[in-house]
Design goal:
Blueprint lengths: L1 H28 L5 H4 L5 H8 L20 H11 L8 H27 L6 H4 L1 H6 L6 H15 L3 H12 L9 H10 L3 H25 L1 H13 L7 H7 L7 H22 L6 H15 L8 H11 L6 H25 L8 H26 L9 H8 L3
Helix pairs in contact: 1-5, 3-5, 5-8, 8-9, 8-16, 9-11, 10-11, 10-14, 10-15, 11-12, 13-18, 14-15, 15-16, 17-18
């Protein structure tokens, strides 16, 4: 057991070191554009350190127009780590290094937790090149760990711990909230309506308790995250942005983006409810997050950190690794494409043209769909569209 645990730590450390090397050009030569894009070492860590006033320890939610664009716990991490940077030397490099250390520790913890949840395929995470390339772009690992922990405890039957971690994860980054849907579907299949309500109560209370101090003291700064997401147009990496580049303009995107998610969520729900065997949260979480990021108005490169652990949990067996690596390869193409496109966008003579970048977006989305379809095909022997027992049995006791 100790040897296995050490192997997990070893691979995770190798991944962390490789990621650190990838960002080292910017650490040495600075984080200015377009050089940071040409060398694919852009990171939000030093960028937002200055742009959000963290160099002077400004409260992250004090400004109506310049508050951090994240939920409160990410803002608190950004704020707290700013106090670990001395006001001498290269503050930006030091701020990056401090946060990279914490993100590295979190990544190691995620690998070890995934190893416990998926002992046969966990190693795919620290070996995935695009995961390695994305570790230090943003603070997302702070959300990945509680989201994965929520899934772990749910499938172990510890509903309160799961709901608590889901509330914490949603207070870090908003994406874990979509995991509530497959959890509720599982409760429904089990006819555990009371447990579902308790789960929602603990989840909602946890999220509210974390957010309430910010809502009461700096409401406009706290709301900026929601305001930006509701008002943003077709942004980097999204299917909407690719269509825009190819001349297809979608009006009323604030309607069509959530509508696409709702349609996808409905299809996901029908499929999940039609399976003869009740799936685990680990088996089903990947699909709803994949739908969420596909319908979103933006797809940031670090979102691969959300998806990859869930994809590994969703794999049926080792035979699925081919489809997994095809998808990961497409994500790597996109990872390189966005930086080289932004290099040209920022004035560099080196990079790729706009339509090549849009094509990379569509390749990424197509590969994600291919991988999801490959997983679904493995589930179809268990799918029975005529299976209505779950509805009849569930409603008999609660009508």
């Amino acid at each position: 057991m100790k040897l296995l645990a050490k192997s997990g730590i070893f691979l995770a450390l190798i991944a962390v070191l490789l990621s650190f090397v990838k960002f080292d050009h910017c650490r040495i030569h600075g984080w200015g554009a377009p050089d940071n894009y040409v060398h694919a070492c852009y990171s939000d860590l030093p960028s937002l350190f200055s742009d959000r006033g963290l160099t002077t320890h400004t409260w992250p939610y004090s400004s109506k127009t310049n508050a951090v664009e994240y939920p409160p716990l990410t803002g608190m991490v950004m704020y707290a780590t700013s106090f670990l940077v001395r006001h001498n030397g290269d503050q930006y490099r030091k701020y990056f290094d401090v946060n990279a250390i914490f993100l590295s520790i979190l990544f190691i913890a995620v690998v070890l937790l995934l190893k416990r949840m998926r002992p046969d395929l966990w190693y795919l995470l620290p070996l995935a090149p695009v995961v390695i390339a994305s570790l230090f772009i943003n603070w997302d690992m702070w959300a990945v760990l509680p989201a994965l922990g929520s899934i772990y405890y749910f499938d172990k039957g510890s509903n309160k711990k799961s709901a608590l971690l889901l509330g914490i994860g949603t207070a870090v980054k908003f994406y874990p909230i979509v995991l509530a849907l497959p959890a509720l579907l599982i409760f429904w299949r089990r006819r555990e309506i009371k447990s579902a309500l308790n789960y929602l109560l603990v989840f909602g209370a946890t999220w509210l308790l974390i957010n309430l101090p910010f809502i009461l003291t700096t409401p406009t700064g706290w709301y900026r995250f929601f305001k930006l997401n509701s008002e943003r147009g077709a942004d980097w990496g999204s299917i909407w942005h690719a269509l825009y580049i190819f001349g297809i303009h979608i009006d009323h995107l604030n309607i069509f983006s959530p509508l696409l998610f709702l349609v996808g969520a409905a299809a996901f729900s029908i499929f999940q409810l039609g399976l003869k065997e009740i799936p685990t949260l680990a088996q089903s979480s990947f699909f709803i997050v994949a739908i969420f990021v596909t319908a979103s108005k933006v797809y940031s490169p670090q979102y691969i950190l959300w998806l990859t652990p869930l994809a590994i949990l969703a794999l049926h067996d080792k035979k699925d690794r081919t489809a997994f690596w095809i998808w990961q390869g497409a994500e790597m193409i996109y990872h390189l494409a966005i930086w080289e496109y932004l290099a040209v966008y920022s004035g560099s003579h080196f990079g790729i043209p706009e339509k090549a970048y849009a094509a990379a977006i569509l390749i990424r989305i197509g590969a994600l769909g291919y991988f999801a379809a490959a997983l679904i095909r493995k589930s179809t022997p268990e799918f029975d569209p005529q299976n209505r027992e779950f509805l009849l049995s569930a409603t008999e006791g609660y009508a």
